[in-house]
Amino acid sequence: MNDSLLVTLLVSGMVYGTPLLIAGLGELLTERSGVLNLAVDGMMLVGAVAGFWVSQRMGGPAWLVLTAAAATAMAAGALMALVHAVVTVTFGGNQVVSGIALTIFGGAAGLSSYLAVIGKLSGERGHHQFTKLDVLGLKGVPILGPLVFNHDALVYVSWILVVAIALYLNHTRLGLHVRSVGEAPQTADAMGINVTAYRYAHIVVGGAFAGLAGAYYSLAITRTWSNGLTAGAGWIAIGLVIFAFWRPGIVLVGAYLFGVLTSLGFTLQARGVTLPPELFSVLPYVMTIVVLVLVSTVWAKRRVGAPAALGAVFRREEH
Amino acid sequence: MIRLERRLDTPSWLSIAVVLFAFGMGLLLAAVVLLVTDHNPLSTYHSMLRAGFTNPGALSSTLVNATPILLTALCALVAIRMRIYNIGGEGQLYMGAMGAAGMGIALGGAPRPMVMVGMIAGGCLAGALWAAIPGFLRSRLSTNEILTTLMLNYVAGLFVYYLIFNSHSYWRDLTSGNAKFYPQGKTLDRADWWPALHFGHLVIPTGFIIGLVLAAVVWWTLRSTRAGFQLRVIAGSQSAARYAGIRTKRAVLSVMVVSGGLAGVAGASMVGDFTHMLDPNGLQQAQFGYAGIVAAALVGFNPLAAVIGAIFIGSLTNAGFQLQGATFPQGLVGVIEGIILLCVLGAQFLTTYRIRRAPRRDPAAPAAAASGPALADQTPVLDASPTFAGRDLEPVTEP
Amino acid sequence: MTAAIGTRGVSRRFPGVIANDCITFDVVPGEVHAVLGENGSGKTTLCKILAGLYRPDEGDVVIDDEVVRFNSPRDAYESGVFMVQQHFSLVERLTVADNVVLGWSKRRGFRHRRKEVEAEVAATAEQFHLEVDPSAYVWQLSVGERQRVEILKALYRGARILILDEPTTVLTPQECEHLFDSLREMTANGASVIFVSHKLREVMAVCDRVTVLRKGRVVGSVDIDEDGADPRMLARLMVGREISLMTKPPANVPDDAPVALDVAGLRVANDFGRLRLKDVSLQVRRGEIVGLAGVAGNGQRELAEAISGLRERQAGTVTVGDQPLRSSSPRHAIESRLAYVPEDRLGTGLVATLKVTDNVVLKDFRSPELSWGPVIRSDKVHARTRRLMEQFDVRGTPDNTVRQLSGGNAQKVLLAREMSSDPVVLVVAAPTQGLDISATESVRSLLLEAAASGVGVLLISEDLDEVLDLADRVAVIYDGRIMGVVDAEGADRDEIGLMMAGMEVGA
């Protein structure tokens, strides 16, 4: 039963969905503060390379190395995001162009490949990998076993993050503040909230999450490094945030859904079904567009939808 | 206390000076990165210069890259001039390539000029239609175009990939020898390959000439025609545009269509000048759509300057390719390009603001105060980040 | 009696205008103090100074007889001073309770317990008789309810001095009553309220003392209870007398002059969907200047926009000459030779970032005279611009951007464009606002010239002097209705002042 198509599909969906989830949560935080970060994919790649580097060159027990690798990946993503913050928040630069610039900077033709070459990482087999754990010894349980009790540590971390972020946004004072910064920065500023500080913090944290999500690729999914490892997952993560109506819980559902769709195509192909895999790969993007359209209707705009000030430059007025 | 004061207008020498300054800063920062990783920046830059321009054949190779980038840069800047962020040039290029390849295959055997015109038309139309989707969504439903165009890039990419790799479509080559081992597109007749202009040793692709002509046309249109005028007005103040009786919704859609058409021509040139078939992998690796946005941003979205921008980015890409090896790791091009663009972006505020030192309490200094009727935020285009939530082209922040 | 809050010799200038000129006044604890005046009298600027939004150029703000310096609104909050402005600063997607407690960290820890917060906010609301549901989202609320949330924000933070800027413009009569009840509750607790208004009836109903401002100065201070204020006297203080600049020669518009603009039964909604103009009718004949007097915010903008096609009409007709205008079609209005000089000079009437040449042909660029097919003939455009700049004495060059011109010159460009389009009707709103004396003179004479050449001019202005000086007939608008139309010659200023303040003029 645990080998059935359905279960395998769901499990692989969860695995492919995890980096989407982590990166998506990061982007959600950034966007909630009113800033658009299009460089998620670039940050993921840099995080992937950084994490892989540490895992290859650091000695010690596996858990230590992997933790250090994850931390390094997060730091790498955070640093890139810091650049985005400086350019867009402090210098008021265009958020779209800055995001594209950082994507090129860090992407497959950029820093990530550069670091891989310098560290001579290409093609090496990974020394360490996040392995699947057997939580509470229940991995053999029908259906729930592989779905809930047999994942690697980062999957469980991602679940904790979903809950933490949902609590943060809706039930803490800081979360209230950041929501107001994303919706109406002028009002938040008038109420004494430091818009710049909140934006910086959320952009950097978003980058850290993106870095961690990237590391999942090189340290869990493939256990190796190659250029452009993420295959555009960062862009799906951006779409995911919209698809999820900027809500952490739905980001979880959406991530796994997108993960399933991506692997569905190939799984079916492997089993001889003649539908082109592109049909499934395209669904996340199409679904995101549909959501975008729905969210733009006046009815929806008031209730759900993008933080009202997303993308706008904030400048305090003179007096 | 440092105070930023909005400039009333930006002299053109200042814009150029700021870009050059930022460019220099970027080169310096990139040099630091090189030093830190044990590369000699001076020799690296020197070899890049040679590989991009001065080596025999280098300039021709640079132009090969510059051609599609010029067209996608025009695509991006035409839309941005009206504060519409069309980042779908990549997907519109793919669709243009598909359209052109299809026409090229269908018209095979006809006289070359006719094939070329057909291909350009097919490419342009395909790109325009692909851009009309987000354009329509934006103009009628106020759906923000940044994400719709972005998502459609991937849809186009997957579609074109499907046409060659997972289907038996019209575009796919099912008969020739190679095709039995590896899926590929039908190759156009040799006779229909687009010609290139030979200037001594320099080879100029037809697409580049088309790009030059279109750059001039775009420049002239923006400057001297009614359409360009309306675009200026809408970008300057949406309420003034309505007041003047301009139909803004129609204008939005038109601009997106033209923008997509330009990227479509880029796709047509890719097929006609270089690949001679529909080559999804090649197109997707090249990422010319995004490169065009970078080139346009570097030159402040000026159509004539876009030629220079495209040649510059083209030379970087070319140099990266030529020099690839132990001393010139693959990622270096992206690093340098990214750093330079980020510096240019960051330095933009110098063109819109003046730096002033003001005492803490400013009794009779009215210069810094906003007064009278509120000035809607009339920012120069690059400074204006878009407002996401699908609002109808509003100026960015209300004072 | 110590003043709760007050000013000593406060002055504030903006480029070209003195908004506050050496203002000294006091508000005592527990009173509702009105600041009465027309727009341009400086009342909003004064309040913004009190609330820490502006710094005075000279003079001091005093609280409890001690001089205070506010560097930001936050400093004012610390001292218990809050201002509720005409444009609210609320986050629509958050609840009422969230908005009220936003940014206020006293007594509140890390957690944001929804129920607790809502209960706290509900308690404050009840204490002051403010009916609002703390768990409702702001986007669901009516304008009156939103105002209550703004007031609640202040009270929750322990406001001792509450400044309300024209609070009743957006309220229904019932909501006004609720507001007044809340104000009485507040002052019973020792807080003070500064009530900025131009509406005499309300001021007399709810306020204890009144300070009247005119053109940036204090012109009078009246204690309603003691002195028993007479509305006529207050109106006179408010509109005053001034030395006129240029005036119109006695009306020589023949009675059978054709009607240039005919507005009949106009019903127009405001931005929130509520009816703003209620059966407005007026006529302007060719060669006549009809002045529309009234304090800003009484429907003038909606009227001007409805006439020029920028705003939809719910009912009624607008006719230019013999051409009825289509609703919501600015182009039709332009084609029917209606010219409009909007109040928002640099945002709507002109595009500040474009050159003068572009602005001159803003409406006209399609005409065969200026364009050859798709091409705009820049030589013709330049020629016309130069001609107009000379004719209207605009200082600057055709290639300057409008932003670079002074306010007066920008306004002249706008007028030049509109007037040179050979219109049948010219609608001008606030034409001399923010302009210095010489620019004002120029603009006035241009308007007189337009009328002399047969254009029907509708002059919408908050400056009653200007209206009386230039117009043949004066209509007064208040709360979306025309209160009355009188001949300018021999008009009784006090009567007009009363109409502007909403009082019906009896026999």
Concise structural overview:
The complex is a heterotrimer of chains A (319), B (399) and C (507). With 319 residues, chain A is mainly α.
Give an overview of the whole structure.
The complex is a heterotrimer of chains A (319), B (399) and C (507). Chain A has 319 residues and is mostly helical. Chain A is 70% helix and 0% strand. Chain A has a single domain (5-303), classed as ABC transporter involved in vitamin B12 uptake, BtuC (Orthogonal Bundle). Chain A has helices at residues 5-32, 40-57, 62-90, 95-106, 111-118, 144-149, 153-171, 173-183, 185-190, 195-221, 233-243, 248-270, 277-296, 298-303. Chain A is globular. Chain B has a domain at 60-311: ABC transporter involved in vitamin B12 uptake, BtuC. Chain B has 15 helices and 4 strands. A two-stranded antiparallel sheet of chain B has the order 1-4. By secondary structure, chain C is α/β, with parallel strands linked by helices. Chain C folds into 3 domains: 5-239, P-loop containing nucleotide triphosphate hydrolases (Rossmann fold), CATH 3.40.50.300; 245-337 and 423-507, P-loop containing nucleotide triphosphate hydrolases (Rossmann fold), CATH 3.40.50.300; 355-422, no CATH class. Chain C has a 6-stranded mixed β-sheet, sandwiched between helices. Chain C starts with a strand and ends in a 7-residue tail after the last helix. Chains in contact: A-B, A-C, B-C. At the A-B interface, helix 3, helix 4, helix 5, helix 11 and helix 13 of A face helix 6, helix 12 and helix 14 of B.
**Sheet with the most strands, sense and barrel status of chain B:** 2 strands, antiparallel
Strand order of the largest sheet of chain C: 6-7-8-3-9-10
Sketch the major β-sheet of chain C.
6 strands, mixed
Contiguous helical run count of chain B:
15
Integer count of domains of chain C: 3
Q: What is the helix fraction of residues of chain B, given as a range?
A: 55-70%
Might you state the CATH topology name of the largest domain in chain C? Rossmann fold
Proportion of residues in extended strands of chain B: under 5%
